Amino acid sequence: MSRRKNSESIGNDSEFGDNYVEEPDFSDPEDFVDDIAEEELLGDILQHKPKETGGFDSIIVVDGIPQVAKEEKKPGSDQKTRLEKLQNIIKKLYNSYGTITNEYWPIDANNKTKGYVFFEYKRPEQAAEAVKATNGHKLDKTHTFVVNLFTDFEKYANISETWQPPEPQPYPDLGNLHYFLEEPDCFNQYAVLSDAGGSTAIYSNSLPEPTLIEERKLWTEKYIKWSPLGTYLATLHGKGVALWGGEKFGQIKRFSHPGVEFIDFSPCEKYLVTFSPMAESHGQPGAHAIVVWEVLTGQEKRSFSADRTAAVWPALRWSHNDKYFARLQRVERKDGPVETISIYETPSCGLLDKKSLEVPGVRDFSWSPSDTIISYWVPEVNYGETPARVTLLKIPSREVIRTKNLFSVIDLKMHWQSSGEHLCVKVDRYNRAKKEKDDTIKYVGVHYNFEIFHLREKNVPVDSMEIKDKIMAFAWEPVGSKFAIVTSVSNTSNNVSFYCVKSGTEPALLKTLEKKACNHLFWSPRGQHIILAGLLNLNGVFEFVDTNDFTVMGANDHFMCTDVEWDPTGRYVFTAVSWWGHKIDNGFWLWTFQGRVVHRHNVQRMCNVQWRPRPKTLLSERQIKNIKKNLNKYGAQFDLKDKMRASRASKELIEGRQRLVKAFTEYRNKCIELWKEQKPRRLQLRDGVDTDSLSAGGGEMEEESVELIVKKEVTIIP
Amino acid sequence: MIAYTTDKAMGNPCEIFVVDSRTADGLNAADPIVKIPITNGPKVTSMLWGPLDEYLVTGHESGEVVQWDLRSGKTEGKKTIMTHEHSNKINDMQLNQDGTMFITASKDHTAKLFDMATLEPMKTFKTERPVNSASISPIKDHIVLGGGQDAMDVTTTSSRQGKFEARFYHLIFEEEFARVKGHFGPINSLMFHPDGKSFASGGEDGYIRLQEFDPAYFEFRFDY
């Protein structure tokens, strides 16, 4: 058997051998020089060429470790030496970033550890993560880790001696970003997001009709937002945020933050904060949820990870001048989590004084709109054992300006007045608190207090005022010293009360308007005028009130209205029905501040309409007074302009109409000609009946009077 | 001659029939003068005769308007012109008095005025609600539109919101100048009286309203 196989195989071989032709030699001739570089041919494959890891990329150096003497281990004892304890603690920390394959604890001449240790990880990425996460980690009060990659040392040692200045980059001229302020007739701009977010349009609020400035489809993927001084328009996309501005709304800057959901500008437009909840779970390692960017350069200044418990946006709150920002955090400490207010200063974005403000139990804080002062409150502990407290703190000195203890507090809300002169604290108070079976607390006898802090007075006096009814809404007058509240007297009707604030006395009630269908208040940004709005379940009724004499200037309604937006000058108001709230009838109406409807626009699937904000006026107080005095003179000029504009508009309208009529009558004449020509055909089709001259309902009625004898009666007259 | 269309139902496609009404046999659908099947296209929702019985104009569920030439053959009907001006279903089409123009009312919230011969759209009248019916006045340059919400949504929203009004627009300027309230359900059908002095409207609420015009209506003039 085997032999036959053998012979077969040999046979095969010989067959092959017969067919075997010598292959040509494919190797290059000896003196052939390859004139194509390897990179060009195989560039993309070369990138994946497995490189020898220098071996040093996965090593990190941790400096700043306490120096511990290397003790001799007592034979037979289980107790760990101090060195071993230290090693265990540190190793536990670093094990979480990857598998440590090697460690080296150098010891100096005195048998003490030198204070630094080398760790080698299995992979360079683990080492990089460890560096990022633990650099600056505080082991205890006196020891802070300084962690670096081993390769970093080489890099730093090799910095060239001669310093070359960086090349100046060409200055991209962005044009006049404030062109919209130079509008000669002072028309404000507004942005309309319609078509469920698919189309964004910018209009100028000109009279008599708004003019379209720019319209783009799919300008944003989520929504748009104006910057606080109106310079930029921010759009949100899947990859990040883009800023647009200038006359042509060109792109000014781009910020890459995948999955961004919310953005916030700092009040002076210097910084932009973006929040992407997905960044930490889905993004690259090292990506953070909250990022602070500098707007002018586009650089990322600092990033934070999102606190799981914080559910309120904006998470970072800015002081009015952009110098500080602060956030509320729960920090893990040795004896449990502690609430802190961390204040950072710009432009370094470092923690102010390198220390957060530890305030156990702090619930909320807010900045004053005109000074760098923070107000925060701490709720009461154990049903009044320790009262609730409101504190005013000056930054950066951390000097406590004022505190106030409040008793029997359920909840608290702080409202600053926009000029920073007053702070109103609304306190919900109870008479008695009962602890229910399931550990919830039931409050009996809830009533409300307002504590008004007067910041401009010496020692910040506080005035108190009590309100019995439930408070639905509160609003300060933006310029001035009044505030308005909506109290609900019964289920259907609310009262609106206006108070005037003066230091030294409790707020004085100026007027109460009764039985108003109102659940929101909108003051004009210039003060004095207010809209009492009944939104949501009250179906959009409005009353325009002049608070100088409390007259109702106008009352009207916009069915199912969801938003009310005053323009930054206080002359016009939009009321809008947003597609996000209500699926049909979307559009916005423009009103004057007196309550007269100017325009009604119906826009398909309109999401929202936002006025473009204006920066603060550059005029001084005296100049403003001067203008008000000479208003008559200016008034005459404006009246003339308005008349000319109106007549021009009507002239245009009339000319337009005349053109339309001419075109149409020409067309109709042609049709009538054709129709007359077709008349014989028509007669033929209709058996000779001339339908053209038939009129309906007939002039062909004839009247006929018929007399009928109904009854015959004979009476005999004697 | 009678022209009628069948709906797409029970497996039968939508078809246009033209039958002879003079004889009893002619009315039998088996032997029509012309039969036009619409197998792949959107179904017909409205139809008008052309001025000299030469062609039909049909409005479809997709918003198309098609002119069919009837003279060509028995079972053919040649599509002569087709336009797609509306983006949603055409609810109604009505002729003007001399048959040279017609107006279409569509679910896409607009009504359009077309020229009969060329199917060219000449005017567009915009509203915020689906338009169910439109009519051209025989004596003045006015048109009236009626519509409202989809019948399905009516009971879930208040009657005020529904805006069940007949709206009058100027034919040439496309501007609305008057509204007549009264229906509390969507208006499904409207027509001017042939003498132009009144109009009739029928609605989902089950009421037919006959409205005569005041002298003010006849004296109303647009400035131009």
From TrEMBL, chain B:
Any GO CC annotation of this UniProt entry: eukaryotic translation initiation factor 3 complex, eIF3m
InterPro entries on file: eIF3i, Quinoprotein_ADH-like_sf, WD40/YVTN_repeat-like_dom_sf, WD40_rpt
Write out the ranges of the repeats annotated as WD. Answer: 83-124, 180-210
Single annotated GO MF? RNA binding
Choose any GO biological process term that the UniProt entry carries and state it. cytoplasmic translational initiation
Q: Which UniProt keywords apply?
A: Cytoplasm, Initiation factor, Protein biosynthesis, Repeat, WD repeat
Q: Does the keyword Protein biosynthesis apply?
A: yes
Where does the chain cross the membrane?
A: none
Cite the Pfam families for this sequence. EIF3I
Q: State the similarity comment.
A: Belongs to the WD repeat STRAP family.
Name the UniProt record assigns to this protein:
Serine-threonine kinase receptor-associated protein
Q: Which gene encodes it?
A: EIF3I
